[in-house]
Design brief:
Blueprint: E1 5-10, H1 22-29, E2 37-42, H2 48-55, E3 60-64, H3 81-86, E4 91-94, H4 97-102, H5 107-119, E5 123-128, H6 132-136, H7 140-151, E6 162-165, H8 179-196, H9 199-204, E7 206-210, H10 215-222, E8 229-232, H11 239-248
Parallel strand pairs: 1-2, 1-8, 2-3, 3-4, 4-5, 5-6, 6-7, 7-8
Helix pairs in contact: 1-11, 5-7, 7-8, 10-11
The structure holds 2-phosphoglycolic acid.
């Protein structure tokens, strides 16, 4: 089954408006059409609109890092899926472990956001991943399976969905699971998605790996059968390292 590898940059709470030159900078290093790779930049919310404009004509998608499940209302500090879509962004990262851990996001809340994002015409990237103690206790697959079931509960369209496996202990730490462990988990996630939707739908859902992806390890990770792209934090802030990773795909 053919699908374009998705190289997604999660800039987290980094950057300023001068970063609008980054899409052009990236394209100088990695021209459009150089490989079968879709590139996605997810900046902080204040630069979404400017980034969408800066990326126009460069074949680079733009995404948000979060959105709320309600369309509008008294939710100080939040941004709705429709507001994200209005900027021209195409994607939204949901349920990142930093949001689950620091902001108490539950699977049910993430499922509601996922539905809202799809309703607004966005493609959600739903993140799952176990903590270190859970892996050490041999519970990684069970935890991730429960996150998949809970975060994709309800009326979710499997045809407009990306899933990212990001072990919490690998994010920003330089630690990465073994290739075998990544392969086992991605296969497990594919199976969970087949049970949640159906085999044909599951085969078309891109499953990204995230957690300390760097130019040095990207090639081996991206070569794994059920790894359909990467979600990259630290190594995505510099365009030369992001382009290096895209070249490995
Ligand atoms: P990292 O972050 O690449 O810096 O480990 C990945 C992520 O949090 O999405």
């Amino acid at each position: 089954m053919y699908m374009k590898t998705l190289i997604a940059a999660n800039w987290k709470m980094h950057g300023d408006l001068s970063w609008v030159q980054k899409p052009a900078e990236f394209r100088k290093l990695y021209p459009a059409g150089a490989g079968q790779v879709e590139v996605l930049l997810c900046p902080p919310a204040h630069m979404l609109l400017a980034m969408v404009r800066a990326a126009r004509g460069l074949d680079i998608a733009i995404g948000a890092q979060n959105c709320h499940d309600k369309a509008s209302g008294a939710y100080t500090g939040e941004i709705s899926a429709a507001m994200v879509a209005e900027t021209g962004a195409d994607y939204v990262i949901l349920g990142h472990s930093e949001r689950r851990e620091m902001f108490g996001e539950t699977d049910a809340f993430i499922a509601a956001k996922t539905k809202a994002a799809q309703g607004a015409g966005l493609t959600p990237i739903v993140c799952v991943g176990e903590r270190r103690a859970e892996r050490e206790a041999g519970q990684a697959e069970e935890i991730v399976g429960a996150q998949i079931a809970g975060s994709l509960a309800g009326e979710i369209d499997g045809a407009n969905l990306v899933v990212a496996y990001e072990p919490v202990w690998a994010i920003g730490t330089g630690l990465v699971p073994t290739l075998e462990d990544i392969a086992i988990m991605h296969d497990h996630i594919r199976g969970c998605l087949a049970r949640r939707f159906d085999e044909a739908t599951a085969r078309k859902i891109r499953i990204l790996y995230g957690g300390s992806v760097k130019p040095a390890n990207a090639k081996d990770i991206l070569a794994l059968v059920d790894v359909n792209g990467a979600l990259i934090g630290g190594a995505s802030l510099e365009m030369d390292s992001l382009a290096d990773i895209a070249r490995q795909a």
